[in-house]
Amino acid sequence: MSFPHRAAAVATLRFVLPFPPSVNRYYRHVGYRTLLSREGRQYRAAVCTLLAGRVQQPLSVPLQAELHLYPPDRRRRDWDNFQKGVWDSLQHAGIYLDDSQVRRAVIEMHEPDGKARAECHIQPLAADVDAGITTRCSKRSAMKKSPGRRGARSSIGTAPSSCSPATFATTD
What we know:
CATH architecture of the largest domain: 2-Layer Sandwich
Number of strands: 8
Shape: globular
Radius of gyration: 19 Å
Distance between the termini: 25 Å
CATH class of the largest domain: Alpha Beta
Number of helices: 5
């Protein structure tokens, strides 16, 4: 649903970034530690170089994002293996304070068109989406004590009675 009277108040940041490495190559494991790989560090540095000076102050509000991935070739890829590198690199570049601020994301894997890239659109989460369209229930109210373990909590299938299964959503 579009709100033309609100269009001027919400600015969308648009970035064209290099195609990210897969999460399988973004990290490496050394013993019991997980480190950012060389390829991950190179990607992060490339994003920081591209975005240097684009944002004066990091965004500090809940965000919604669109990520359009254009792979370099037609090999089969899972779209969910590429988002972590993008979100972390944008945080490191100072676009937002923490990638946990991204509350809603739409990720699309497109057919290759000759130029491998990731197009990212970021904007503040609309107030009507965050607070009004669906009924939201907090995690704390959705959790109840599990009968199996003393003091343990479980939220599996325990939506509060005020929330129907269709409108139950967890928020931080």
